[in-house]
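Incident log, structure service

09:12 report received: a user says their structure output differs between two submissions of the same chain.
09:20 pulled the input from the user's history:
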Amino acid sequence: MARTTYQDLLDAGVHFGHLTRKWDPKMSQYIFMERNGIHIIDLNKTLTKVEEAAAAIKQIVKSGRKVLFVATKKQAKDIVADYAKSVNMPYITERWLGGMLTNFATVRKSIKKMSNIDKLTKDGTYSNLSKKERLMIQRERIKLETLLGGISDLNRLPAALFLIDVKKEHIAVSEALKLNIPTFAMVDTNSDPSNIDFPIPANDDATKSISLITSIIIKAIEEGLDERKREKEDEAEKEAAAAKSKADAPEVADRAEGGKRARKTAEVADVVADADTEAPAAETEE
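09:34 re-ran on a clean worker, output below:
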C-alpha cells in the first residue's frame, strides 16, 4: 500500500519549486515543467523517491539505530521537533554546531555538562551557591538546552540524517558525507541532490509540504519500531519456551526411566507367574 497519493502531494503544494533563475541544473531530472517563471516538480518522481526513502529508513530503525532530524529553518523547526519527539528520535532545530558529527566526542562532553548541572539542582548543591553563580549556571543550562536538548539521549553517532533543506544544512551534509552516514532529505529546485543518498524532490518552504513529507518518514519509523518490538517479543517467547523445555527434560527422563523400570518389573512378574502355573502340572504327571 502506498504511503501517500498524488492528490495528497498536490494539495500540500509539494510540486511548487523556486523561481527558474534560482534553479540548480542538477535538479533537472526532477522538474516537470516551468509555469509563470516557477519550476514545477514532477510528483510522480516524488512519489517514487519518498517510497524508497521510507522503506530504507524503516529498515534502519528496525535494526535499533537512531535517525537524526535536522531542520533549522523557521517554518520547519516546530513541525520537525514535534514529529521527532513522537518517535523518540534526536533532532536539531536551532543551529547546527560545526563538528557536531565529526567531533562528536566534544559534543558529548557538552551534553554531559548539561546533565551535571541538572544533578546540582537535584542534590541541593545549587542552592548553596551565590546568586551570581546560580545565574551564570542557569544561563549556561538554557544555552545548552537550546542547542543540544534534542540530542541529549544520543550516545553514539546517528545511523542516518533526515534534513529539510540541504542548501541551508550544507555543513551537516558535508559532515555526514565524511563519516559515510546515509542522508535523507527534501530537495527543492534550488538544491544540489548529488550528495544526498535518498533525495525527495519537494517544496521545502511550505509548512504543509514539510509536514506531509516528514509525517510519511515518521510513519515509516513507527512501522520499523513496531516490527522491532514484535521481533523482540517473539524471541523472548522462544527463549522462554526453550528454557521451559530444558527444565522439563530431567523430569521427562525420570518418567521415562520409571516407565522402563515398571515395564521390566511387570515382565519379571509375568515370568514368575508363568513358572508357578507350570510347576503343579509337572508334579501331577509323575
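09:41 both user submissions now match this output. Likely a transient worker issue. Closing.
09:42 reviewer note: The domain at 6-233 is CATH 3.40.50.10490 (Rossmann fold). The mean pLDDT is 86.
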